[in-house]
Amino acid sequence: MTARYALYLAPAEESLLWHTGCAWLGRDPRTGAALAQPVIDGVSAERVRALTAAPRRYGLHATLKSPLYLADGMSEDMLIDATRALAAATSAFELPALAVDMLSGFIALRSVQDSAALQQLADRCVTQLDRFRRAPDAEEVAHRRRAGLSPRQEALLARFGYPYVMDEWRFHITLTERVAGAERDLLLAYLTRHFALALRAPLRCEDVCLFVQDCVGEPFLLHSRFALADR
Question: Which residues contact 22 (CB under 8 A, 6 or more apart)?
């Protein structure tokens, strides 16, 4: 099976948010190194590991363009060139503040207000890089539909191979698998404390990141950062 590629926003690697988030997930997606995860009263180490399994595999990120296989006639170098050009044509901008919150049963870092610049960047990644995307097969489409899609999401799935784009896109950095009840409340309180210091610093979007998964089941790694224009 060939590699998958995704366009993400990821905190700067020297930032406290990067180190705090990677420590929570238990992996550094730049180096691939495993990291010791925090000890939480009332939650076993095994449970923390299980609750962070999928976010750890994808790496600390917010999705701009979801993972894709390259279409016939497209290459990694071509995708890199196009992403570099897209980034160079986009001005860097301030990000809204983030907070620990729930999204569709997951705990995530979410923006506290909308950002037109952020939405425009996500929309451009979806539309301008769509020519690189191989159309999903029937199994992939069926998997997306199991979540239960609205008519609008069905239309986006048909057009872009993913239902949560454009007006259905919500900026978020996933921190857990689905949680509920007392466990959800405990983790929400813990993660609010865990990220409090890291979320105090102003956030700025200065680049977009290309993440690569070499084959199915392998973790995604941060391949490259492409700087936005400093205007």
Answer: 28, 29, 35, 60
The upper half-sphere exposure of residue 166, i.e. CA atoms within 13 Å in the direction of its Cβ, equals: 14
pTM of the model: 0.94
User: What topology is assigned to 4-113+172-227 in CATH?
Assistant: Cyclic Phosphodiesterase; Chain: A, (3.90.1140)
Residue type for 175, please?
L
Q: Are strands 93-94 and 62-69 parallel, antiparallel or unpaired?
A: unpaired
**Cα 90 from chain centroid (whole Å):** 19
What does the alpha-carbon distance between residue 5 and residue 8 come to, in Å, rounded to a whole number? 10
Q: What is the pLDDT along the chain (231 residues), one digit of tens a residue?
A: 589 999 999 999 999 999 999 999 999 999 999 999 999 999 999 999 999 999 999 999 999 999 999 999 999 999 999 999 999 999 999 999 999 999 999 999 999 999 999 999 999 999 999 999 999 999 989 999 998 999 999 999 999 999 999 999 999 999 999 999 999 999 999 999 999 999 999 999 999 999 999 998 899 999 999 999 986
**Does residue 129 contact residue 82 with C-beta atoms inside 8 Å?**
yes
Annotated domain spans of the chain: 4-113+172-227
Rounded Cα gap, residues 5 and 220, in angstroms: 9
Cβ proximity of 182 and 96 under 8 Å: no
Cβ–Cβ < 8 Å for 203, 18: no
Q: Measure the CA angle with vertex 118, ends 90 and 220; round to 5°.
A: 90
